[in-house]
């Protein structure tokens, strides 16, 4: 038996209508992955399987500076003790070869006086290298070998001291120490500024000594695939900022907001608010400059992943003028406030400018409504206060009599009614 056909055509049925409805794009949840630059500026990168380890020994000074303090102190101590032991052995051999340790030649001329054992030779080696000079042990002019060892130990000791002191100075005056007082906002924001969608961050310097020639660079790092199928895990894309267009350096006297206009050349041009949350991009911020007090170039770094970018927010102002002095409130450094911002991409805003106009109009209307509500609440509060004072004074008021006059039939006399 054949199935009976429906009276309603198939294209107008529920399956047909559902197939023709525009479907919203479905975005996958963003997979948590490691970031390339941590919030404190350290690089999250591990070097493995380095076969040519000898390259690090070709630059010993830089290797010592890059080492941690505990390893550096161990190397320093080992180097000094080794040099003292090496020259102690030399002094002992000189004394032994000359016969200074023979009790039978006690009254004869010695190369080094009072060196009778290896312990005394070790103590004399320390006295020579660190120039203590207690006065009990000394060399004489009768032994050329002792004078030669003395010259060699002084030269080697000066070299070791110079390298170690220079390494300690470089470790204590490293540029990353100055970068600890260069701060970045915890979050980045995207909002409309000057009728353009902009990516903004805030930077600041906690010290009064300035950073000379400060520059800020932005880079977007993401995993990309070329048309040829090549996968680039760390694809770095430079991002232009407004400050870099006007000049090459910043006057970092007070906290500044670094703004990047999302235009056709921006890697954020095609991202909407929803697509940004699902993307795996990372925005790296690099602040460079010269320290005013030491003249050393310093660099501070941070990064922002998609979860740390707030769409539709703006930084609150933190610089105020108080009694002729500009004051910076760092407690509000990372505070943001919500503003009306289209959730579409910058490309869609360029193609449909009316979206921005409608958003701004809605923002203006909501602002006016909030002002009206605020004014009405103030008016009601004032009326309530005034009504309360009237109710308190009603007890002292006496109602006045009101007279109504009615005409008579002749219209001549009037009756008073109270």
Automatic annotation (TrEMBL):
Keyword terms, alphabetized: Ion channel, Ion transport, Membrane, Phosphoprotein, Potassium, Potassium transport, Transmembrane, Transmembrane helix, Transport, Voltage-gated channel
GO molecular function: ATP-activated inward rectifier potassium channel activity
GO cellular component: monoatomic ion channel complex; plasma membrane
Reaction(s) the record says it catalyses: K(+)(in) = K(+)(out)
PANTHER family, A to Z: ATP-SENSITIVE INWARD RECTIFIER POTASSIUM CHANNEL 8, INWARD RECTIFIER POTASSIUM CHANNEL
Pfam families referenced in this protein's UniProt entry, alphabetically: IRK (PF01007), IRK_C (PF17655)
Transmembrane segments: 71-94, 144-169
Name of this chain's protein: Potassium inwardly rectifying channel subfamily J member 8
Annotated membrane topology: Multi-pass membrane protein
Residues flagged as site, Role in the control of polyamine-mediated channel gating and in the blocking by intracellular magnesium: 161
Span of domain Inward rectifier potassium channel C-terminal: 182-352
Similarity comment text for this entry: Belongs to the inward rectifier-type potassium channel (TC 1.A.2.1) family.
One GO term (biological process): potassium ion import across plasma membrane
Chief place where the protein resides: membrane
Gene source species: Poecilia latipinna (sailfin molly)
Residue ranges occupied by any Potassium channel inwardly rectifying transmembrane domain in the UniProt entry: 37-174
Region (Disordered): 365-396
Location within or outside the cell: Membrane
